[in-house]
Amino acid sequence: MMADLPVSYLIQALDLVGIFVFALSGAALGTRRGMDVFGVLVLAFVTATSGGILRDLLLGAVPPASIASWHALAISIAAGLLVFFSQQTVTRLASAVLFFDAVGLGVFAVTGTYKALAFGLSPPMAALLGMIGGIGGGMVRDVLTARVPVVLQAEIYAVAALAAALVVVAGHWLALPPAIVSVVAIGLCLALRMIAISRNWRLPVAPKTEE
Fold this sequence. Notes:
The protein has 211 residues and is mostly helical. It is built from nine helices and no strands.
């Protein structure tokens, strides 16, 4: 049963899912910015792998899983081509980038936290690393497309990733099935992001001061 899936296999499976949806996010933004096919594919790959690479480097898991085999590259290219050749459909969906990004954010927050726990990190630091792994791909994507990274703005972004990571930590502490915990954590992250976007939820911003 899926609930009995070993954590290592679950991390690998979710990593592939995260790579695919983050690649869709990067490719969708690339097409909206008018990039050529090569630019779209590069942005898809970078968006899909940056968070996982950062996570693995911080854990000392080298070479990072995203570049240790051809799977991440193949999935990123497939997602990029899918978006590029159906860009008319994608561009009609104004929330496509936001949705794919929210799913990828939750997936990588979950896998990063589980992997950090497997490497022996304490629960608070595992949750923090999960959040970092989740936001990494989106930050690099935004920088490469000359956007202010969402995580540096007032939107609920890193907080959503942290919430997912904390669910994983709690589920691990309670010895709950990882597959069930992962679904709940990803769902929470996705719900927080989409509700925050639709209702314009924002974190408090420091008041501007006169120079």
